[in-house]
Amino acid sequence: MQVIEKISDMQSYVRKCKLDGKTIGFVPTMGYLHEGHLSLVRIARKRCDILVVSIFVNPTQFGPGEDFDKYPRDFGRDKKLCEQENVDIIFAPSVEEMYPKDSVTYVDMAGEMTKVLCGKYRPGHFRGVMTVVSKLFNIVQPDIAVFGRKDGQQLAVIRRMVSDLNFPIEIIGGETVRESDGLAMSSRNKYLTEEQRKSAPALYKSLLLAKTMIENGETDSSKIVERMRDYISNSGDFKIQYIEIEDAGTLVPVDKIRNKVMIALAVFLGETRLIDNIVV
Amino acid sequence: MQVIEKISDMQSYVRKCKLDGKTIGFVPTMGYLHEGHLSLVRIARKRCDILVVSIFVNPTQFGPGEDFDKYPRDFGRDKKLCEQENVDIIFAPSVEEMYPKDSVTYVDMAGEMTKVLCGKYRPGHFRGVMTVVSKLFNIVQPDIAVFGRKDGQQLAVIRRMVSDLNFPIEIIGGETVRESDGLAMSSRNKYLTEEQRKSAPALYKSLLLAKTMIENGETDSSKIVERMRDYISNSGDFKIQYIEIEDAGTLVPVDKIRNKVMIALAVFLGETRLIDNIVV
């Protein structure tokens, strides 16, 4: 395994791979890898010759007052984990390498998809995501790229972007990996106190509750959201940011459930913001 | 020579070329080809194995009330000219192929570069240009792409975008090709009446006037612009939109000339908007 820090080195390496007819798989991450990331790495590993994992905590997708500075980092551990998974290249650029001072171009989206759910509470977040992912795609030039379904809105936004801008890349969504009690794995779970950690599985349980209601014939989104809100509020020190039900493809909010929907939530547990979702 | 209309066909073709180790050169155009375009085609032809010319009148870079509908088109003639220049592929997609109804992603730029010069008078123009060029780059995946220096601001914006988004593409600027009397070649010259056509070379002459002033030691931009303004106003039925002197790299307006500058102008001759520039 090789660690590459320079964009030009990464692009030269890719050029050689392409000339050799090798396919490239890509898993972009912000590091502090957990089983969720590793499951994406394993999906990609099976589907390409050369596997690139990027580790880059992208400042432009954090808002003012968000946790960019304290976002957990442990490159040594990440490196070991990648080695165990037979990753070929870790691409780990510095912030200065990715964003020289005179850099001004961005990628963004008209319409509602980046304005609902997390987009409503994190203005500029998806512009940051789309821009950095576009850059990484142009640097790594993968044939396939794997993103986690836990960031459900991010996955939908990236699929939309790849289609709109004609990136020649297949996007694969990897299932959310959960702790044995149901909590979705996240680098931010590390922030939780012992007590918070104990109440955190209520989020997934509320999603399962919603699933059961839909399976039992409930089609009224507001009733489901209300039931989830009650359940979460009674399960610990939660401050709910949103609970929403949206069309799974377009992320347009749905009042009457007819097709595939994504039920998504964002909740503060103490200071820590957690998100989760399921598609039903 | 082959004409390709579908994005997926173009991408399959490119995939095969890459596997064969062939380099791809690209000249994006809006068609109605003239000697200016052909000079770009010849530059690209010398530097690649497979030469792709795109012909697409891009609606998103025209503002309301601009000349999208009446922009001159002659695909039969364009095809013949490309054949004569040994073009391998004409990529000529429809508007619906390039912009499906649900398409929402765009590429744009913060900062001043797209807000000065033409950007001031054509809001949204450079967003349209950046978005379509990003799409074309992802479709054609060229090693080199050639753009004309006549659209000097466009060239600067594209160079900035390619650098910021890390497109693995070398951008080459081709010299402006002029009629024997100095008028810069443009598909829009076709709009001119005989009389307008006769007065049109005054634009280039005013740029040469500015060049001479600078070579003779003049460093005050406002004096040069004033002299150009006088010259043009006395040479025909011109309405000046802008005459500006900017840093040739950053397009930041320059009051005192010290380094390489671009002297650029946009002028209405009757209904027809003409642009020209030189770098001194």
Secondary structure blueprint with pairings:
The structure is a homodimer of 280-residue chains.
Chain A: E1 2-4, H1 7-19, E2 24-29, H2 35-45, E3 50-55, H3 75-84, E4 89-91, H4 95-98, E5 105-109, H5 118-121, H6 125-140, E6 144-148, H7 152-165, E7 170-174, H8 194-199, H9 202-215, H10 221-233, E8 238-247, E9 261-269, E10 272-279
Parallel strand pairs in A: 1-4, 2-3, 2-6, 3-4, 6-7
Antiparallel strand pairs in A: 8-9, 9-10
Describe this structure in words.
Two copies of one chain form a homodimer. By secondary structure, the first copy, chain A, is of the alpha/beta class. The first copy, chain A, folds into two domains: 173 residues, Rossmann fold (3-Layer(aba) Sandwich), CATH 3.40.50; 93 residues, Pantoate--beta-alanine Ligase, Chain: A,domain 2. In chain A, 38% of the residues lie in helices and 21% in strands. In chain A, the strands form two sheets. In chain A, strands 1-4-3-2-6-7 form a six-stranded parallel sheet, sandwiched between helices. In chain A, α7 links the parallel β6 and β7. The longest helix of chain A has 16 residues. At the A-B interface, α1, β5, α6 and α7 of A face α1, β5, α6 and α7 of B. β5 of chain A pairs antiparallel with β5 of chain B, so a sheet runs across the interface.
